[in-house]
Amino acid sequence: MNVLIYNEFVHEKDPDQKAAKVYPNGIHTAIADFLNREPDINASTVTLDNVSEGITKEVLAQTDVLLWWGHMRHDDVPDEVAALVQEAVLNGMGAVFLHSAHKSKPFMRLMGTDCSLIWRESDDMERIWVSAPYHPVAAGLDRFFELPAEETYGEPFGIPTPDETVFIGWFTGGEVFRAGCAWQRGWGKVFYFQPGHESYPTYFDPNVQKVIRNTVRWAKPACRREDCMDCPCLPKAHKGNL
Amino acid sequence: MNVLIYNEFVHEKDPDQKAAKVYPNGIHTAIADFLNREPDINASTVTLDNVSEGITKEVLAQTDVLLWWGHMRHDDVPDEVAALVQEAVLNGMGAVFLHSAHKSKPFMRLMGTDCSLIWRESDDMERIWVSAPYHPVAAGLDRFFELPAEETYGEPFGIPTPDETVFIGWFTGGEVFRAGCAWQRGWGKVFYFQPGHESYPTYFDPNVQKVIRNTVRWAKPACRREDCMDCPCLPKAHKGNL
Amino acid sequence: MNVLIYNEFVHEKDPDQKAAKVYPNGIHTAIADFLNREPDINASTVTLDNVSEGITKEVLAQTDVLLWWGHMRHDDVPDEVAALVQEAVLNGMGAVFLHSAHKSKPFMRLMGTDCSLIWRESDDMERIWVSAPYHPVAAGLDRFFELPAEETYGEPFGIPTPDETVFIGWFTGGEVFRAGCAWQRGWGKVFYFQPGHESYPTYFDPNVQKVIRNTVRWAKPACRREDCMDCPCLPKAHKGNL
Amino acid sequence: MNVLIYNEFVHEKDPDQKAAKVYPNGIHTAIADFLNREPDINASTVTLDNVSEGITKEVLAQTDVLLWWGHMRHDDVPDEVAALVQEAVLNGMGAVFLHSAHKSKPFMRLMGTDCSLIWRESDDMERIWVSAPYHPVAAGLDRFFELPAEETYGEPFGIPTPDETVFIGWFTGGEVFRAGCAWQRGWGKVFYFQPGHESYPTYFDPNVQKVIRNTVRWAKPACRREDCMDCPCLPKAHKGNL
Questions:
Q1: B232: exposed, middle or buried (Cβ count in 10 Å: 0-12, 13-18, 19+)
Q2: How far does D138 lie from chain A, in Å, by closest CA?
Q3: Sheet of B188-193: strands edge to edge?
Q4: CA angle (D220 as vertex; C107, D44 as ends), nearest 5
Q5: Chain mean pLDDT for chain B
Q6: A185 Cβ under 8 Å from any chain B Cβ
Q7: Which chains have 3+ CB pairs within 8 A of C?
Q8: Is the pTM value of this prediction over 0.90?
Q9: Which of B3, B79, C112, C133 has CB atoms 3.0–4.6 Å from D112's, for a disulfide?
């Protein structure tokens, strides 16, 4: 399966930010590295610098699942790219939005809501509970797993009620957050997964990697919609004539 | 309560179209007329001609529920207006999308999907079944009601799974359609109601009028969100300090 | 509106248990007391001792909303009573299940699942976050409220995905829990509200009382189903003949 | 995968009923026959006559998906058997309820509602529309398929809102019905599929067979819950100690 990882890749290039030390080659590279160790996954990457060339209708047609990480530069992603991503999801491509991508253009377009939350950077420990242990995304996890430090995200999370809430996060500072949420949108599966602040080595965590591997396989389309007409006018149907 | 009815008002001004005879003063006027007979409802109207002046942040702040009818000229509604409507819904305003408004900008923004359907103009009779008889929108209806002629709409309807499917339509031509669908989006209630083709006197039908009255009252916000900050950064919380 | 409060009333009569000091007249009396201060609410009570006489078809037909507290003696509630409660909910009565009532017969019948959870008695403080601030049950609350000590409940909670998750609880011991969950079942509204261990003065807490007042009003039926036939055989329908 | 097909097998043994001619060996045999043609499926059957010996905890533990057909003799299925089926589903077994099994004990226990509907035997043609074309259960189907004659079922269907409504049926007599509905219950997947009246050769229809093959594969558990404790009391958790 083909996985495409978008990362704006801004924090990590700023030597004054922790991210430069934690992810010297960028978050996208860290994720691609552990995904490419899987025999069934072929992961490639794209960053803001070449987003318009890297995320095209043709590329998305070959992409089973798109992962998206963005934070500072959501607005610099062209509307056209966000529209292509939305369209590809509706046609069946899986999409996984990571951490601060809750405010990315394609996620907000797919949700239709403000996707607001409360937050704080204070090195809280996060304990992520599995609230839907039967869900494929949670396969192989214990009751919970912990991240020694994460950015705190808290409710209310301004999203449509998820089809399934797979994870709920607990923070030492006193917050809770629906940390893993699944939606069907058109033919495509959408997942939001909260951990992944750029200052912490979250994407090197074995449990986080397990979740991302699970999610990517869950979001892979069984089939895609092709050459579909929008709002077709159909004659009175009789058996066999469609 | 204040209800604002948007109608693009294009078909009805074209003397070559049936709509000019059925709704000589426009669909918006027909709807406003029966709503204004209710002591608790104050209905006003706006059309495409003055949409930018008529649908402003200030107007929407005073609007409890917005009804929307559009068909030919969805694209001529400015993106800014669609964004204002979306924002108002997320802050609590109710919104009711009628018939071909399934492809209107504000509805598509709130859904995040393509809102596609199949359709045909062939004077089919429609029988609208109540699938959620307990829902306030269905109050006072029998098991079903009929419209002697309606435009045929059919599944699949490209929407996120509704929170509740209140009506399912049956057409003599052989189609079915989720004719009444409810969603919560942010603080606001959203309803889609399928009947209402411009060539038929649907909005004069007593049952359709009953549904619209019910829907408007159901969608009225109990409270609205005001001056809320998007994604506020909050300190570690202690009781009483928020 | 008529509210009926069921409490098994076992813990509070045992002088060796804290509950006897916290609720000397029983949890039901504590709840009835603050509800009966409301001009629109007429609250009465029933306990396990007279559950078969106190919860009859006739009584439930006059009850708008039933509150249910049980823990030690779920099994002693007759199946017939649980069946009557379930039937009344399906016909429109609201039902609010409190704390350990997650394992009560009527709640389990309405859910169809095992309603399992994890738990611990260790005097954890609980902070209850509002995850659906627009919901009538959360009206008048701040972002969260705290209970100095509660029994710890944790995920996974073995319930069908709620229609809406209004509250999520955070416990000092490290657990999270969907503390307020809403479902439609038949014509009736069902709510589960987690706080309320018998050893703590939870039902004297102003925020808990506010939630219960809100919930009772939200769950009040707008209409009830009466004399309905189960699975009626209907002739081919023609307009007006139903 | 192991599929177990329960059929009460009453109609087909009555020489005065059409079913005896349509399904001389019983509906269960007809279904087992086409499923056993699949290399990945091992289908066996059980009938009311030996339901207590045929549906045990041990048998269900080896069953991936259970299909259930019943009509006249729902009440003769022991409560113990229905409880075992419910428990097995909550632990991960898939369950598919066919046609009149909407009133079977295990389905009603899993739903928690009355599962009422309207019905009529009048040889209506049914056209079954795919409302969720992306769903695995609909794979390989056209927009709709038709059954020349089926028992008419109609809304309202007294079920909890399905997680997904995959099919909606249209009947020549004027009814509509949510003909394919999916729910998650505990760790198990549940599907209701409406066609299958005993008087018609529905289970010989190629599209119906395709749906049942799809459904069985969709409902197959990826994993099962084993030896789980109900409501475990857990100590304060620290990383790694669960």
A1: middle
A2: 11
A3: B42-47, B2-7, B65-69, B94-98, B188-193, B176-185, B164-171, B118-130, B144-154
A4: 105
A5: 96
A6: yes
A7: A, B, D
A8: yes
A9: C112
